[in-house]
Design a protein that fits this description.
This protein has 10 helices and 17 strands. By secondary structure, the protein is of the alpha/beta class. The chain has a domain of 166 residues: Domain of unknown function (DUF4445) (Nucleotidyltransferase, domain 5, 2-Layer Sandwich).
Length: 421
Amino acid sequence: MSRAEGDLVLEVGQYEAMIQADDTLFSFESRRGYGVAVDLGTTSLVAQLVDLSTAKVLAVETALNPQRRWGSDLISRLESAMAGNERMLTRLIREEIGAMLLKLISGREISIDRIVIVGNTVMQHFFAGSDSRPLSFYPFESPDLGAKQFRALELEWNIDCNRISFYPSIGSFVGSDILAGIHATGMRRRKEFSLLVDLGTNGEIVVGNSEKLLCASTAAGPAFEGAKISMGMLATTGAISSVADSMKGMLCSVIGNVPASGICGSGLIDAVAVLLDRGELGDFGEIISGDAEIELTEEVTLTAKDIQEFQLAKAAIAAGISILLRKMKITSEEVSHIYIAGAFGNYINLEKMVRTGMMDFPLDRFRKLGNSALIGAKMFLFSEMDVPEEILAITTHVNLESEQDFQDIFVNNLSFTQPSS
């Protein structure tokens, strides 16, 4: 759709960050054979071949989700599905994962005994070929959230595997990727309270302990992935990934050590925190100088609207945490463990994030978990379906927008002075 009128560079390796191919250790009971764990994300796909006798990862494949051509967010893809592209969306994702599986076993004389797939609710519906229409209009509830079982033949995969499971979703926009994250954190086995925040294309939140878990989804992810930010971009070459204050002004680190061409989510959080500390932003996000934008580098600026988009995103996370804590009838002081999951979350400067008011907790309680969905999916390879059923039995999905005072709490958290709870 573009005319090339001169030399250009096409960059295709933008999702090679190893955080997606997590090698976090976990306890397991050895069993025979080989398994594959798949994290089916809205933006990217990750698959790992695992030796079930040792839990060792033998191979990793990553890819972009081919559905991105129909939109970077879930709503856009649901709209595309309603416009008649649902079967195409299903075919594309099945073909891509099938190709990834072939690459994983290429050159190995082995057979795959089982495959565990996790992903958000919309991705589950697209992969399974389920009717996604209920997710596209109020009250956004689908009756088809349970686990899905497949054979390679029906997916048109050229492998020999008859134990292919897409694990169950928790709610309309809280999928099996969060179910896997709950399993990975171990929060369902502890009496003390934990908080899991997965910062991806969407922002999912889980609060609870071994007796009860509450979860919710917020529309925070797009801003953190560069969407709606004037010079926003994904964490690729040319993106400002971190910002620090110095005697000479703001010091911006750029991925690839090249001139900055935009800013990604972690850089956006840093920039806002630094600007607040420098007194260049007011309590309500206003640019104190009165200018329409603030220069970060010679190439990249932040506009007043960018700051507003950030406020909307951080307020959504803060309000979601506040409401779930209240419904759990606990305070922030009672939360012992805070897990930040997701590839984006791994690169966040926690101190600067706390400065913005997104999460109002002591720094020593935070732990970056990486790709919790993939860790949990690998752990599921060593158990049967009773484990997710046990998690679902104590988990309740909360629709934040249905809370009467959600808007009031959300607005209170737009400010950079209000606490999140």
